[in-house]
Design a protein that fits this description.
268 residues, alpha+beta, Rieske Iron-sulfur Protein, 2 domains, 7-stranded mixed beta sheet, 26% strand, globular
Length: 268
């Protein structure tokens, strides 16, 4: 049988002492959330108070979106003096590369990033091989014109490759201009892309539609081949994806209709 407790009184005034209110953390959070929600609803119903509601968070600044390629600052590299300028096909010599920024709005929409670095390289067309559906194309210049920008009256082509992520374990491949040999096979590495982490080697003079990318369960590509610099050796599961280029008003522009080629390593 429970006993009814007598209410305590203030010993000085004799007035009843209000009962102690215990506030738990959960109760405090519920109350705070309720008050915040009520405040926002109230503010939204009063025109003068609508400015109190914070704007939606935008991860990328739409004013900085740019599908034209812009040279990235890099100390000691030949293009560092062009940092911040738009890339043009005539800037490069044969077997020369440069790192550029690419910031189209579609990157945020499809890949969840605001910008990425690409590597552009100029290749002599006489050294170029294009393989589509396992067949070498008779007219490599005509075939590659869909993916790169032709220069020097058909003698060279400028192409862009996704060196932001290697399809193996997401390192950043680099273009090797100096004469060196592969520690894996001893073959020449010069004028190829190589991953510095695990030494996968990619040949930009051999462009293929790599069906292995479409079959890789770890990527978001919708079951279609990807145009890549051919994987020569190393642990990468497939080649280094291209970013198709066009020329607009003399400036190199990265096309976005094949952006799903870049959906790997957590991108998109």
């Amino acid at each position: 049988m429970s006993e009814k407790r007598e209410r305590e009184t203030d010993k000085t005034s004799g007035d009843p002492v209000p009962p102690e209110i215990k506030i738990t953390r959960r109760g405090f959070m519920k109350g705070s959330i309720g008050l915040a929600a009520a405040g926002l609803v109230g503010a939204s119903s009063v025109p003068a108070l609508k400015s109190l509601i914070p704007p939606p968070v935008t991860r990328c600044d739409p004013d900085t979106a740019e599908d034209r390629l812009v040279y990235k600052s890099q100390d000691g590299e030949w293009w560092d003096g062009l940092s911040g300028e738009f890339a043009r096909k005539e800037d490069l010599q044969i077997n020369q590369s440069a790192i550029v920024w690419w910031k189209p709005k579609e990157l945020e929409e499809d890949l969840g990033v605001c910008e990425m670095t690409l590597n552009i390289v100029k290749i002599q067309t006489s050294a170029l091989t294009v393989i589509i559906e396992e067949r070498e194309q008779e007219d490599a210049v005509q075939s590659i014109s869909e993916w790169g920008v032709i220069d020097d009256e058909g003698e060279s082509v400028v192409m862009a490759f996704n060196t932001y992520k290697c399809p193996h374990l997401c390192c950043k491949p680099v273009f090797v201009e100096e004469d060196r040999t592969s520690p894996i096979s001893g073959m020449p590495v010069q004028f190829n892309f190589q991953c510095p982490c695990h030494l996968s080697l990619f040949d930009p003079t051999t462009i293929i539609d790599d069906a292995r990318a479409a079959d890789d369960p770890n990527v978001g590509i919708e079951s279609r081949p990807v145009m890549v610099a051919q994987l020569v050796e190393g642990p990468a599961p497939w080649g280094l994806p291209m970013v198709p280029l066009i020329e607009r008003d003399g400036v190199l522009v990265g096309r976005t209709e094949n952006i799903d080629w870049l959906k790997f390593c957590g991108m998109g």
